[in-house]
Amino acid sequence: MRRYMNADLSRIYSRKPRIIILLIFFILCAVNCIFSASAATSMASLASDCLNTVGLVCTIFGVIEIVYVYGDDFKAKTIQVAIGTGIKRQKIVHAKLLEYMICVFTDIVIATVITVVCAIITKGMTGNLYVSDVIVFVFIEWFKVVAALATSMFLMYIGEGIIATLLAYLLLAGGVITSVIQLLAPLAGLSELHLHTYTLSSQVSTLQARLELGYLNWVSLLIILLHMMFGFALASILFKNKELEF
Fold first, then answer.
1. Which pLDDT score is estimated for 51?
2. Three-class SS of residue 118?
3. Is 210 in contact with 158 (CB distance < 8 Å)?
């Protein structure tokens, strides 16, 4: 499986359209930071404003990597080729998720480093910039994107395409499902159950708030992991029984 992943990652990282798109967003992060510097009163406020923008871009990174990690394979039917060489289907599901995790993590780290460096250069001070806050930011954004994909990935193994997964990913990562539940729950007389607090985006926000205070919320982490495990298990089962077109 390691050879399969190495070959896949090499192909993904060498895709010129992907490189160009990522460069555009890296440049946008830098430009946004530079223009935000004039209005910022301190290094901390500048870093906060810039990282909020990077947080939005991270969701876009998730979309980009879904296209290049999964979309290209379904389009070119390279997954069928991998199965033909003897790689088990469950290992392919596992390998593709790991590739996605690696690619998204790399994107987020680069965007964050660019933003922090621009903030330091434009503001010229680092006293109020805490490394721990940056680490928490990178982890949360990465975890949110990966969790949203892992929860919705089973959809792409049903129809051998990424459109349904992309839509579900955006709804989960963008917190749309949480907002919809908040709006509909009172109409259904379920507001007292606080169902919106159990959604993926709500639990990620809770986890982030607790980490910023210096401790881990195990309940939120467990709920998020259950979301991910459900999606991964369902994807493995569906793909195992899927009749593929060669």
1. 78
2. helix
3. no
What count of other Cβ atoms lies within 10 Å of the Cβ of residue 181? 19
Nearest to 50 by CA among 145, 118, 135: 118
Q: How long a stretch of residues is the chain?
A: 246
Q: State the residue range of the domain holding 152.
A: 2-240
Domain for residue 76, yes or no? yes
Residue 107 burial class via C-beta count within 10 angstroms: exposed 0-12, middle 13-18, buried 19 and up: buried
Residue identified by tokens 């070959």 is 7
Helices (H), 14-153: 16-36, 43-65, 72-76, 78-84, 89-123, 131-152
Would residue 246 count as lying in a domain? no
Euclidean distance between CA atoms 135 and 21, whole angstroms: 25
Residue 130 has what pLDDT? 66
List Cα–Cα distances, 45 to 87, 103, 179, 221, in angstroms.
50, 29, 28, 28
Show the tokens assigned to 76.
Answer: 């070119």
Whether 245 is covered by a domain: the verdict is no
Considering the entire predicted model, what is its pTM?
0.89
The C-alpha atoms of residue 169 and residue 150 are separated, in whole angstroms, by 9
10-residue mean pLDDT profile of the chain (246 residues): values are 83 92 93 77 68 87 95 79 80 92 96 85 61 85 94 87 92 81 65 68 87 87 92 89 63
Place of tokens 């997964």: 165
Our count of domains for the chain comes to 1
Scan for tokens 């749309």, then name that residue: 176
Residue 243 burial (10 A CB sphere; 0-12, 13-18, 19+)? exposed
Q: Is residue 31 part of a domain?
A: yes
Tokens of 53: 């923008």
Cα radius of gyration rounded to whole Å, the chain: 20
